[in-house]
Recover the amino acids of this structure.
C-alpha cells in the first residue's frame, strides 16, 4: 500500500475537531500522488461532474469534448434534441473521436483507421470490414448518467449516484439567480481561455470562494482600476465595481451549501455599472424583491463540487478545473451571459471579463502566483497543517436570515466572506468520498 493511504490511517488528513477549535488539513492532500489517484477513483468517477452548458451544444450534431477526471468524454446533441455523452475513445484502438474541442458533426469518423459512428453512438462503418463482423459490438460507450439543471449539463460515471437536483441541493438557488436573468436563458460567449497551474486542483477550488485573499492578492488590480477611473478614461459601464476589492468592510457572507458546494457574496457599492443593471425594471416584474436584490447588488461566487465555479461579479464566468496530477491542473474560463442583453451591456461584460478573469488580465495572473506559491509551500512536510479556523466561533448552523429570505437551506452560514467555515463542508465531503462514502 502506498504511503499516502498508510498515513491516513495513522493520522487523519482532515483534522476535524471544531468543538476543540481546530479544523486543519494535512498538506499532503495537495501533494501526494497516491491521494490524487484515489481522488480520481473515489471522487471524479463517483459524483456529478460539470460537462458544459446547453448553449455550447445547441444544434443537432453539436459536440463538446471534455473530461471526467482524466477520462475523455464528449456530449453530443441528438436529432430529437436530447443529449448523449460518450467516452471519447474509438471502440477500435482508442483514438479520440472529436476533431476539435467543440464543433458540429452528425457522424464522427475516426482519423486513425476510419471507423465511423452515428450521432447516437452506433458504429456504422468499418473500413475494409471483414465478413460477419457484428458492428453493434463496437457502438460507443455512453456514460452512466447525464442530466442538466437550468442548462448546466453534468455527467457521472457511476449509475448509483443520487439525482442531480438532490446533489445540487441548496446550490440550486444560486444557479437560479444566474439563469433567471434573461427570459431566453443564458449563453456561453464564443471563445475561452485555458491556463495551466502548477498546483493541486483543490487550491483552485478553495481560491474561487476565498473572500479573504481579495484585498491582498488583488490590491494591484484594485489600485490600477482606481487610477484608471480617476483619470476619467473609464466611465459608465466601463467602470469596475472595485469596492469589495479594497477592504473587507462591505457586507458579505459565505455558505457551506452541503455536498462540498460552497458560496460567497459581497455587496457591490456601485451596482449601476454592472451589465445586468439595464434589466432591472424587467426583472422587477418577474422576480421577488429579494431575488432582485441578490442579482443586482451582490457579487456572487459559487463552487460546485468538484470541478466548476460560477461567478457573477463584475462579469459572469464559468470556470472549470481539470485535475491532471497532484501538482498540476488546467483551468478553463468562459464568459456566460444573459441572451438578448444590449450590445452595450455585452461589451461591458466582456471588457470586465478580460480585465479580471482572463490570464492576460490583471487578477487571475495574481491568483495563479498565489496558488503556485501555496502548492510549493505545501511541500513543507515538517509543518504539515493548513489552517481553516477563521470564523469558527461565529458560525451559524443552517440558514442565516439572508438565506431564509431567499429560500435556500445551507449546512452553515457565516456573516463574513473573510471566514473559512465553508472549507469545513468542502473537506468533509472530500474525506467522505475518499473513504468511499459518496452520500451522507
Ligand atoms: S482507432 Fe479508431 S479506427 Fe482505429
Ligand atoms: Fe482571486
Amino acid at each position: 500500500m502506498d504511503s499516502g493511504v498508510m498515513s491516513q490511517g495513522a493520522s487523519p488528513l482532515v483534522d476535524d475537531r471544531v468543538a476543540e477549535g481546530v479544523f486543519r488539513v494535512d498538506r499532503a492532500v495537495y501533494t501526494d500522488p497516491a491521494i490524487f489517484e484515489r481522488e480520481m477513483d473515489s471522487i471524479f468517477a463517483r459524483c456529478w461532474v460539470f460537462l458544459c452548458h446547453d448553449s455550447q451544444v445547441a444544434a443537432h450534431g453539436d459536440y463538446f469534448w471534455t473530461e471526467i477526471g482524466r477520462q475523455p468524454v464528449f456530449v453530443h446533441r441528438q436529432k430529437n434534441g436530447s443529449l448523449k455523452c460518450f467516452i471519447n475513445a474509438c471502440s477500435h484502438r482508442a483514438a479520440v473521436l472529436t476533431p476539435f474541442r467543440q464543433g458540429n458533426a452528425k457522424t464522427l469518423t475516426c482519423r486513425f483507421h476510419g471507423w465511423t459512428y452515428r450521432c447516437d453512438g452506433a458504429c456504422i462503418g468499418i473500413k475494409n470490414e471483414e465478413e460477419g463482423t457484428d458492428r453493434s459490438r463496437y457502438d460507443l460507450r455512453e456514460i452512466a448518467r447525464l442530466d442538466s439543471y437550468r442548462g448546466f449539463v453534468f455527467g457521472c460515471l457511476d449509475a448509483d449516484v443520487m439525482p442531480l437536483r438532490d446533489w445540487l441541493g441548496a446550490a440550486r438557488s444560486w444557479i437560479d439567480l444566474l439563469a433567471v436573468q434573461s427570459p431566453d436563458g443564458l449563453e456561453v460567449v464564443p471563445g475561452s481561455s485555458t491556463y495551466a497551474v502548477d498546483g493541486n486542483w483543490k487550491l483552485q477550488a478553495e481560491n474561487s470562494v476565498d473572500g479573504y485573499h481579495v484585498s491582498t492578492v488583488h490590491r494591484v488590480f484594485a489600485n490600477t482600476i482606481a487610477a484608471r477611473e480617476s483619470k476619467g478614461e473609464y466611465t459608465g459601464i466601463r467602470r469596475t465595481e472595485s469596492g469589495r476589492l479594497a477592504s473587507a468592510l462591505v457586507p458579505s457572507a459565505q455558505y457551506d451549501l452541503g455536498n462540498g458546494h460552497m458560496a460567497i457574496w459581497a455587496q457591490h457599492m456601485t451596482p449601476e455599472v454592472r451589465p445586468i443593471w439595464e434589466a432591472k425594471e424587467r426583472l422587477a416584474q418577474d422576480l421577488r424583491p429579494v431575488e432582485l436584490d441578490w442579482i443586482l447588488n451582490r457579487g456572487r461566487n459559487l463552487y460546485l463540487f468538484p470541478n466548476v465555479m460560477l461567478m457573477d461579479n463584475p462579469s459572469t464566468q464559468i470556470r472549470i478545473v481539470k485535475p491532471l496530477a497532484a501538482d498540476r491542473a488546467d483551468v478553463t474560463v468562459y464568459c456566460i451571459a444573459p441572451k438578448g442583453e444590449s450590445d452595450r451591456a455585452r461589451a461591458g461584460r466582456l471588457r470586465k471579463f478580460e480585465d479580471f478573469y482572463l490570464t492576460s488580465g490583471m487578477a487571475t495572473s495574481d491568483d495563479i502566483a498565489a496558488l503556485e506559491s501555496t502548492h510549493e509551500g505545501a511541500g513543507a512536510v515538517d509543518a504539515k497543517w493548513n489552517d481553516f479556523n477563521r470564523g469558527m466561533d461565529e458560525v451559524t448552523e443552517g440558514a442565516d436570515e439572508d438565506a431564509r429570505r431567499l429560500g435556500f437551506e445551507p449546512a452553515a452560514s457565516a456573516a463574513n466572506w473573510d471566514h473559512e467555515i465553508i472549507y469545513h463542508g468542502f473537506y468533509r465531503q472530500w474525506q467522505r468520498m475518499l473513504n468511499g462514502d459518496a452520500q451522507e
Summary: Confidence is low (pLDDT under 50) at residues 1-10.
